[in-house]
Design a protein that fits this description.
7-stranded mixed β-sheet, alpha/beta, binds S-adenosylmethionine, two-stranded antiparallel ribbon, about 45% helix, globular, WH-like_DNA-bd_sf, Arc Repressor Mutant, subunit A, 13 helices, Rossmann fold, S-adenosylmethionine-dependent methyltransferase Rv2258c-like winged HTH domain-containing protein, SAM-dependent_MTases_sf
């Protein structure tokens, strides 16, 4: 078979099995297998999960054939299933978090398809189901991101300990902001979102954290004279989702308390060129997520820039520059940017507002 046919087969088969794996996870099959230290038959799994045995058997057939679940045969010819080593680590870690996107992709498939046609709708905003998946991802990432912030942004820890005003824009379900607010009770945190229901849900969810409040803001519509100023503004995977990132960055700049107000944002780091990234399946996956989620989300207006997650590190840095931030790209020499988390930090805080970009692609 030609290399190209092999690749098409590989991708197609991986997709089919990946969707089945997502379904198996969502109905609890992995959880049930993880709870016992002996192998289970499909019937035992079905009984434990309140599931129909025939469906369970088919899914386990798929997963065991694909070597994602172990299979053995009993003396009377029944099949028994158990977890492969490392399953829990994978499903509770980054691969599992990304697997979560499969079911959301399936649920928005037709709507995104409609958006693609010229005369179809332009936008599809994030669904609750997607925010749920992002929150699960955040449960894994938030402690690590908080640590990176504290280790890589000079004096941030000291300032947060002393007490500063902080806002996170596009906070999603608010986990990262809540994590930091709990860690630094002397600072005042605001978790901001553009979606009213999400702001209300976050208010209820994090009501027990006294130094965390909530606000509804459209980042692309920050007033010329802001109501409030902040010492530190941060956002995570938001800039590329905005219809007008430059206006948003300019708005943030107006909100920074001078002279030392700081903006930190995390975004995906790619070369920006599918030619350069050719063969990198992680980047390819981000283009897929971009098609289903980021592009439809950012088309909040007809004139959206619609960057998508793979517009490239340099493009994002240049937009920040255009908005008046000085960008010192400490990693532009990095030959393999997808290998590490990169920090780019303004060094001259006297003339322009400082910016720290943390561009991440693992
Ligand atoms: C990829 S999600 C990131 C959510 C969260 N920060 C995280 O890392 O899980 C992008 C977020 O940006 C928010 N957003 C989209 N457009 C916005 C706008 N115009 N102003 C403020 N936030 C916006 C969305 O509601 C969404 O929660």
């Amino acid at each position: 078979m030609s290399n190209f046919l092999e690749r098409v087969n590989e991708v197609t088969q991986g997709t089919l099995v990946g969707v089945a794996m997502t379904l198996a996870r969502e109905v609890g099959i992995f959880e049930i297998l993880a709870k016992t230290d002996y192998p289970l038959t499909s019937n035992q799994v079905a009984v434990a999960g309140g599931l129909k045995e025939r469906y369970v058997r088919e899914l386990l057939g798929c997963l065991s054939t694909a070597k994602l679940v172990q299979i053995s045969e009993t003396e009377n010819g029944d099949f028994q299933y158990s977890l492969e080593d490392g399953t829990e680590e994978a499903l509770n870690g980054r691969p599992g978090a990304f697997l979560g996107f499969c079911s959301v992709m399936a649920s928005v498939f037709d709507s995104v398809k409609d958006c693609i046609y010229k005369d179809g709708p332009i936008s599809l905003r994030y669904t609750d189901q997607l925010q749920e998946v992002l929150d699960r991802k955040s449960r894994i990432n938030a402690p690590g991101i908080a640590k990176i912030f504290l280790e890589q942004i000079p004096d941030l820890k000291t300032k947060l300990e002393e007490g500063i005003d902080v806002i996170e824009f596009g906070s999603g379900k608010g986990r990262l902001c809540a994590t930091l607010a709990q860690q630094f009770p002397n600072s005042r945190f605001v978790a901001s979102e553009a979606v009213p229901d999400l702001v209300q849900a976050n208010k209820d969810r994090w009501a027990h954290i006294p130094n965390l409040t909530f606000s509804l803001d459209d980042l692309c519509g920050i007033p010329e004279v802001p109501d409030k100023y902040y010492d530190w503004v941060f956002c995570c995977d938001v800039i590329h989702d905005l219809p007008d990132p430059v206006a948003a960055l300019q708005g943030i700049k107006r909100m920074l308390r001078q002279p030392n107000g700081l903006l930190t944002f995390i975004d995906v780091s790619t070369s920006g060129s599918p030619l350069v990234d050719r063969g990198d399946m992680t980047v390819a996956s981000y283009y897929a997520l971009g098609t289903f989620f980021c592009i439809p989300e950012s088309y909040q207006r007809h004139d959206s820039l619609a960057l998508g997650p793979c517009s490239g590190r340099q493009r994002i840095a240049s937009l920040a520059q255009k908005a008046g931030f000085q960008v010192y790209d400490s990693i532009s020499e990095n030959k393999n940017p997808s290998q590490s988390i990169q920090v780019s930090m303004d060094v001259d805080v006297s003339q322009t507002s400082p910016l720290s970009m943390i561009l991440d692609l693992e």
